[in-house]
Amino acid sequence: MGLGSTAKKIQKVADTAEKLYAKLNELREQVLAIRDSLEATDERVQQLEIKNAEQKALIEALAREQGIDVESVLDDVEPPESVEEEVAENEPGSDDTKDESPQAST
Question: How far apart are the C-alpha atoms of 23 and 88, rounded to whole Å?
């Protein structure tokens, strides 16, 4: 083996390293973009939760003023199935793993 084949191998390793470095930088940029998006989404969700709580308080105050029993109205509401599953998953003592077997829906 001469120096030519060694130089080719070194060049191949260098090219691979450059590609890997470029991909790593691309992934880093994507992670930063996702982080920024996540932070912005978190801020929007917090603002929406505050507005939701304010609106709930206003509606409950208006309902009481009109003699409507808020508790009984809320007891009659049936949440969508996806909400019920989410609430059940977030209850204390429930495990965080989902049972994806066909028997889980029975």
Answer: 41
Tell me what the pLDDT averaged over the chain comes to: 85
User: The tokens 């989404």 sit on which residue?
Assistant: 41
Taking the C-alpha atoms of residue 95 and residue 106, their distance in angstroms, rounded to an integer, is: 18
For residues 63 and 70, the answer to whether their CB atoms sit within 8 Å is: yes
Task: Provide the whole-model pTM.
Answer: 0.53
Q: Is the pLDDT of residue 106 over 50?
A: no
Q: How far is CA 43 from the centre of its chain?
A: 13
CA–CA separation, 40 and 52 (whole Å): 18
Which of these, 99, 102, 74, 79, lies nearest to 89 by C-alpha position? Answer: 99
pLDDT digits over 17-29, tens only? 999 999 999 999 9
Report yes or no: 60 and 70 within 8 Å, Cβ to Cβ.
yes
Determine contact, residues 61/54, Cβ cutoff 8 Å: no
